[in-house]
């Protein structure tokens, strides 16, 4: 009996190997894992056992064409899954190679249910590991989940929480639709608390909060709302200028859909140029600046406008004591493209009438916001945005409060335009390329009549003009390595054209009266890289990075390497300790003409 035992074992091993070496001709080279498993069982009669908890059956696979046996086909379709085929007792079992958990990446876009507009800053996490990610400014997210995970949780302030069963791996790019909460209903919070990332020196203000802040004459104002947060203030009580921790008004970087603005005030700063009805998201960075931002010393105000409703057309008209605004949004092609248009104009000149304008002066302002977004496919999307704001003021010399020698006219305007292309290169890589145009134009004129003789008066007309113009191309790329590490990198080029105040008049009085505008042409280059790490079960967050900026003008070259570092340790009860270091360089500064 002992002599026969080895032969029996060899016979059993040969029999098991025969199962995996059984001849099998695949009906096609492509298909799902489930398709090939079922076909093997049908053709060979061999039973294949597996667990669907870690084997994603509908994953699309491709054979090489050289497979001729059951074992060869199974090895090809299971490659990279961490699962191997084993023959036991006349059956084939699909088993994990080790006890190590396998991870895979799920990405996609988070949108509002009714309008299909993307949602910025929504939380995405696995309820088992409690790890996840935040949707970026384009609503894109990328998260890694274990193969045992069966669902993801999506949450955001003002929206109902969504629990999404995980799709099969061939469908890993999701499109999540979140339903807005009804603000009139009582909200009862039960169960586990959502993990919300907070940062010192960072304010992310939901646009709905604008209605809760005090408003001058009923005008919702983004910048005045930000003034109520710690560390922010203004030069005057009613001004919309921001002064961050003692910095100057020109030391703040204002971005409207990624386009920098050099002037943000209407009516000499009484109102800001940002129409509250057109704004979707507002972020203020007061320190711990992400590496992608540069060029200013004090703060960054990043404002995103609405994309437009992709489901149905909507319009609204709003009246306040000083202005009227209207908006229109809707789909050009349902679920494919949409537009948003808003217009705001002051009513001061129309309310008080012509006689009042002649006695005290005339003032009018208007804003136009337009945005078009087009979904090319599930990986590519294009945005076109445009903004124009205009102020016009006329002060007659014989006005009642302050009689003057001259009639004065003032006009200043902002124009911005942006073309954005976002692309999902892979479930882990998202990139955004933006071409922008920005222009600020300031004009004033004065006119008066002098009687140098008894024959005829002499008219004096003078005007001054100043202008700033930028053309830029930038790229930002996000690479989500895992749930605990994300790389961000990119760069850009900006062409600056500055034309400070020029003055001219109809009287030839030499350079003291007529001065042509000097023009300055400059090139600005930027590069940045940043690594965000979340360690020790997300309690420790490290964000090292660097921003490189350079300015070239007429043979002069100014370069600056600006290191950044943020460290945060989360404590119980939503408390944390944070330290940050940021070196910022500002190449251009605002000078005022007396």
TrEMBL record:
Keywords: Cell outer membrane, Membrane, Receptor, Signal, Transmembrane, Transmembrane beta strand, Transport
Pfam family, one: Plug
InterPro entries: Beta-barrel_TonB_sf, CarboxyPept-like_regulatory, Plug_dom, Plug_dom_sf, TonB-dep_rcpt-like
Location relative to the cell: Cell outer membrane
Domain TonB-dependent receptor plug: 221-296
Broad class of the protein's primary localization: membrane
Membrane topology recorded in Swiss-Prot or TrEMBL: Multi-pass membrane protein
Name of the protein described by the UniProt record: TonB-dependent receptor
Organism: Chitinophaga oryzae
